[in-house]
Amino acid sequence: MFKKVIVAEDLEDINLAIEQTLKDLEIVDFQHAKYCDDAFLKIRKAIQDDEPYDLLISDLSFKKDHREVKINNGDELIQKVREIQPNIKIIAYSIEDKSLRIKSLFDNSEIDAFVLKGRKSIVELKKAINIISTSDETFISPEVASALQEKNNYEIDDVDIKILKYLSDGTSQDEIIEIFKNTDIKPNSKSAVEKRLSKLKDFFKANNTVHLVSITKDMGII
Predict the structure, then answer these.
(1) Rg of the Cα trace of the chain?
(2) Which of 50, 119, 183, 212 ranks highest by number of CB atoms within 10 Å?
(3) Cα–Cα distance between 93 and 115 in angstroms, integer?
(4) Per DSSP, which regions of the chain are E strands?
(5) Nearest 5°: phi and psi at 132?
(6) Strand order in the sheet with 55-58
(7) φ, ψ for residue 63 (rounded to 5)?
C-alpha cells in the first residue's frame, strides 16, 4: 500500500472525502494542495529531500480566482509531475467524461487510474488505489470505460484537426471548403465538411461550433 500521498483538489468537501478514504486504507501520510502550482512544488521538494510521494490524486478542473498560476489544470500538472518523477502512481479524479481527454491522459501522461466523481466514486477510488498499489494494472470507472470504447469507433484525423484550427482562427465553413478545394484536401464538399463538424460536436459533446473550438483548445488538440 502507498505510504505517502498528495491530493490536488480545490474543493474542501471532496478533500475531506478523499482524506477519509485514505484513512480507511490506513494511509496516514498525506497532504493536500488547492492549487496545481502548490502540488507541483510539494512534489518537487519531496524529490529533493529524497522523500518522494508514492501517489498523486488530482482533479482536472480548478476554479480560477485572484491568484495567478502557472499550472492551470490537472492535465498540465500530471504531465509536469510525470516528467520529474516518472515512477509516481497517478489517479485522475474528476467529473470529466470526455473520452478523448481521458484517453489522452492514459496514452500521453500514462496515468494509472481514472475515477469518475459520482455516487460510486469513493468505492471506485478505494478499488483504484488497491489495484495500482499492488500491480501494474490500470483502473478506469466502468461508466467512462464503456463510453470510451464506444467513442473509439470514431477517430480524429488530420482533416478534422485542420477544420478545427481554421474555425479557431475565425474562418467560416464556406471559406474552409474553398481552402480545401484550392489545396486539394479531401473530402472538400459542403456535405462532407458539415458531416464531420456534426460528428465532432457529438464526439466532444459541444453545443455549437464556438463551444467545440473552446473544448478542443482546452484539451490542447488545437
Answers:
(1) 20
(2) 212
(3) 5
(4) 4-8, 29-33, 55-58, 89-94, 113-116, 139-140
(5) -75, -15
(6) 29-33, 4-8, 55-58, 89-94, 113-116, 139-140
(7) -70, 140
